Amino acid sequence: MKRRQYLIGALSLAVAFVVFVIPFIFVFLNAAKTAAESATLDFSWPREWRFWQNLVEVVQARDYMLLLAYFNSTVITVGAIALMVVSGAMVGYLLQRRRTPWNRIIYGFVLAGLIIPPAVVPTIWLLQQIGLFKSITGMIFIQCAYGLGFTVLLYRAFIATIPRDLDEAAIIDGAKPWQVFFKVILPLLKPVTVTVIVVQSITIFNDFTHPLYYLPGAENVTVQLTLYNFQSQFVSQMNLLFMNILLVTVPPLIVFVFFNRQIVAGMTSGAVKG
Asked: Does 273 have pLDDT greater than 80?
């Protein structure tokens, strides 16, 4: 039995190495080559190490577009996550604690947000009507809306594991409903909150489709759109294109490596009681 587990573990590590590590090494090596060397697209050590020079050139391209993209993506991610955490936790708390006839209807809308694919044209029309099309604020609301269903389900499952006695004790002590939530319940939601922050921040930061549709304009570029914008510019300089891929990939990768345990803990903590 132990030998079988060892073989399965070794096989899993080998598959993960081939699928994830080898492509990353390939991108890293080609990002450090000259334009002529990287054009061959082979898995070889650079003859001339130009990692720093390529990095500077990519950052300075198109009047430092990559830095503007990092700023826009960071603002969108932080704003959407903040809205998602507060609103998702509040909706999950109400769905779990207050049993009303409206709960099933609201829960149905939450599930619909996960199942029904978003419609691009009506969303663009709505953003134009309220003056949020081509704006960072509108993109923040879009990202929050798309991730809210998953967030509510996580919070609802986790809140089910918190005893109702805490709510009742706080009410007996004179706490108002909003005080019960923000001072008693919300601090206990740290594990699932970390999970939501990490998972959704990676999703939003790596999003390509939604900024392409809802956030056009060179001043609104995000990190994933830089790959699309730089593709024609760097078509004869694959080393710079690989460097851009590396710069876009590394931040989410670092976040995932450092917080992967918190992700698993937060997603399984509410699995015992629904």
From this structure: no
